[in-house]
């Protein structure tokens, strides 16, 4: 895309965001984005753990072990 890499595009979008929204709103947006990212990772880890536990408990796996 016009010889621009991902880092350049991110910097351009941040500059546009600061100009349109202002620094305070961009800081709030970044804070909320960070919280969402943390909650998403936490939820993902919980689901993966639950799936592993279900896999261990399933009767199909118990039959394979015998």
Report the sheet with the most strands, covering strand number, pairing sense and barrel closure.
Answer: none
What count of helical segments does DSSP give? 3
Structural class: mainly alpha
Residues in helix, %: over 70%
State the distance separating the first and last CA atoms: 57 Å
Total number of strands: 0
- Classify the beta-strand content into a percent band: under 5%
Query: What overall geometry do the principal axes of the alpha carbons give?
Result: elongated
Q: What is the H/E order? A: HHH
Q: How many structurally independent domains?
A: 1
**Uncertain residue segments:** none
Rg for CA atoms: 22 Å
Mean pLDDT: 85
Please tell me about this protein's structure.
The structure is a single chain. Helix 1 (6-21) crosses helix 2 (23-57). The mean pLDDT is 85. 0% of the residues are buried. The N and C termini lie far apart (57 Å). The radius of gyration is 22 Å and the shape is elongated. It has helices at residues 6-21, 23-57, 59-65. It is mainly alpha-helical and 66 residues long. It has one domain (6-65).
Give a short summary of the structure.
This protein is mainly α.
Key phrases:
66 residues; single chain; mainly alpha; 0% strand
Please write out the topology.
Elements: H1 6-21, H2 23-57, H3 59-65
Helix pairs in contact: 1-2
């Amino acid at each position: 895309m016009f010889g621009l890499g991902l880092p350049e595009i991110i910097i351009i979008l941040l500059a546009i965001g600061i100009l349109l929204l202002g620094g305070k709103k961009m800081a709030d947006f970044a804070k909320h984005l960070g919280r969402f990212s943390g909650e998403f990772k936490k939820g993902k880890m919980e689901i993966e753990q639950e799936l592993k536990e279900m896999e261990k408990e399933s009767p199909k796996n118990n039959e394979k072990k015998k």
